[in-house]
Amino acid sequence: MTCSPYSPNDYKSDLKPVWCPGCGDFAVLNSVYRALADLHREPHETVVVSGIGCSSRLPGYVDTYGFNSLHGRALPIATGVKLARPNLTVLAVGGDGDGIAIGGNHFMHAARRNVDIAYFMMDNEIYGLTKGQAAPTTPSGDKTKSTLYGNPEVSVDPCGLAISLGASWVARAFSGDVKGTTELMKLAISHHGFAFLNIISPCVTWRGDDQTKELRAKQRAVPAEHDRSDRTAALRFTNEDDDRMTVGVLYDTQRPTLVDEMLEIRDKAIGIAPPPGREEILRVFAPAR
Ligand SMILES: Cc1ncc(C[n+]2csc(CCOP(=O)(O)OP(=O)(O)O)c2C)c(N)n1
Ligand code: SF4
Ligand SMILES: [Mg+2]
Predict the structure, then answer these.
(1) Per-residue pLDDT at 274 exceeds 90
(2) 58 CA from centroid of ligand 3 (Å)
(3) Measured distance CA(188)–CA(185) in Å, rounded
């Protein structure tokens, strides 16, 4: 076994997290430190991009390159970073509101383009930062600050959405299981393509103190016999009944990433372009295979 030159502590920044005591995002952050250390990712070759929200504060706590951007815009920025510098490890992180509400359109395009990034969605089924309004993942009927008589809307399962949109790797984790979440993060980061990890992460302030206990009781491992390459089978573990939350890899397939496709096109263009044109193409799109 090769020893990692890094320990989880090496990825800690000088900033102290300001999340509420008991927030599930602390455990997610710990899993990020462990996953990066286990995979020996160089801090100067790693970029963590987020939008806005409690969960989107995460890049500030990680001692790599980072970008705490605009609400809902983590994915287009992460896509730009990956296109410009494909050799970097690029993580996009943020909340369910950030990724499915205002950022829903970007989720669709990053997934279908198979951008080679790992996207960790910290899903607390609420808008935490803005004080507890219903999000697209809030279960129907739940009372929140903005749905005093119960949420009248049908909720979204982010994993179901990701599979339908063309993500090539999709999994669900529970933040309370740091070891399990770390292992899933490592698989997501190692996957060549758009890897979506929906991390159910309790908001103790707006979803109640019992949320952690309730989620722990609901979690079930993906059955060993599940065929991860079977898209239809994977969808069976989405939109589950209220009493069940299946964690583990739901879907895993391989297809060319956006950068793979762009390099193919670049090489075709270089093949037919006159010499000055070739240099221009290489100047604009330089990354090596
Ligand atoms: C363009 C824009 N619209 C709305 C907001 C207000 N806003 C900030 S965070 C947020 C929702 C946060 O929810 P989520 O992404 O689930 O993160 P959490 O705080 O739950 O981790 C909203 C609506 C904003 N900052 N920018
Ligand atoms: S409001 Fe909720 S999501 Fe935000 S820090 Fe507090 S517990 Fe975490
Ligand atoms: Mg949220």
Answers:
(1) no
(2) 13
(3) 5
